[in-house]
Amino acid sequence: NYRCIVIGASTENPYFVLSSGIRSRSMLFEFKNLGQKDLELLLERVQQKIAFKIEDNAKEFLLKSFDARAMLNLLEFALVLNEKEITLENLKKLLNGVNSEGVSSKDTHYILASALIKSLRGSDVDAAIYYLARLIDAGESADFIARRLIIFASEDISNADPNALNLAVSTLTAVKNIGYPEARIILSQCAVYLASAPKSNSSYNAINKALDYVKNNPALEIPNYLN
Q: What is the DSSP string of the chain?
C-alpha cells in the first residue's frame, strides 16, 4: 500500500498549463507577492548576515520598486560595486538588468497585453503608452503588439472612426519592414490615435448576435430578389 505525494511549483498559471484531470486531483496554492513589511524584514535579515550600510533613499527605492527576488538580486550586484554601502546611484545603474518582468511567462505576456487593450478601451492615453512601453521593454514582438491593435481598432472603435483600422493595418506593415528600435515610435503613434478615437463595438456585437442566431435557428429561405 504505497502512497505518493507530489509537490510542484511553477510560475505558470495552472489553469492554463495543467489539464482539468490533473487539477481535479490537486490542491492549488497561490503565492502572493510579499508586502513592503515582508521586504523590510527580509532586508534586515540580509543586513544581519552581511554588514553594510544603505542610504535611506536607496532603501526606499528597493522596497517600493521590486519583488523579493529582484531586490535580492539587485542588492547582490550593488554590493559587488561597493561592499560597504548601497547607494541610490548604484542601484539605478544596475536597474535595467533586473527590473523587467519580461514576457516569457504566459501570465505576464497576456496580462500586459490585456492591460494595454483595457487602457485603450478606456481612452487612457498615458496608461496605454505605459503598458506599451512595458511590452516593448520586456521584449514583446512588434508584430504581436500591432496585431492586437488591429483587433482593437475593429472590435472597439469600428465605424465610429473607420480610419483607425487603416492606421492599425498600416502599423503592422510598417513594423514588419522597420523593426525595433524605430518600430516603437510607430506603435506609439497608433496607440495614441486608438486611445483618443471615439469608441463603438457595434460591429462586434452585430456579428456575434448574427452568428448566435444562425447557430440556434433553422436557416432562413433566401428571398428571390437576393438570388
A: ----------SS-HHHHS-HHHHTTS---PPPPP-HHHHHHHHHHHHHHS--EE-HHHHHHHHHH--HHHHHHHHHHHHHH-SSEE-HHHHHHHHHHHS---S-SHHHHHHHHHHHHHHHHTT-HHHHHHHHHHHHHTT--HHHHHHHHHHHIIIIIGGGSTHHHHHHHHHHHHHHHH-TTTHHHHHHHHHHHHHHS----HHHHHHHHHHHHHHHSPPPPPPGGG-
